[in-house]
């Protein structure tokens, strides 16, 4: 029997302290730039919000992507990313997506989970 994706944790660790994870019954969120996204990190509250209506692999990728925002902010790496405005935001999103993809891919490989499992 194939292994299943574990539940999304309610708390995560960050370099500057714990992060609360909240799964919301929505399909997406409106980001500050007007885009729609499946997750948001709210640094002032140290909360990650995830949309619930996602396949498990996408939900975990989104969690890892938002957690990467935490890592970049807590470590100060965001302070050395060059550019301004949309170019800088795009660079940060690319870094977060890359880290999330590596995390999920590694998790799938070591756990034996089917990445295409639907629930």
Structural account:
It is a single chain. With 119 residues, the protein is an alpha+beta fold. The chain is 39% helix and 21% strand. Helix 1 (56-75) crosses helix 2 (85-111). The longest helix is centred in the last third of the chain and has 27 residues, at 85-111.
Name a few traits of the molecule:
two-stranded antiparallel ribbon, 4-stranded mixed beta sheet, single chain, alpha+beta, Arc Repressor Mutant, subunit A, about 120 residues
Quick overview:
The model has no long low-confidence stretch (mean pLDDT 91). This protein is of the alpha+beta class and 119 residues long.
Main sheet summary: 4 strands, mixed
Low-pLDDT residue spans: none
The CATH class is identified as: Mainly Alpha
Number of helices: 2
Taking the alpha carbons of the first and last residues, their distance comes to 15 Å
CATH architecture: Orthogonal Bundle
> Percent of residues in beta strands?
15-25%
- The overall pLDDT average reads 91
Return the string of H and E elements.
EEEEEEHH
Rounded Rg = 15 Å
Q: What is the CATH third-level topology name?
A: Arc Repressor Mutant, subunit A
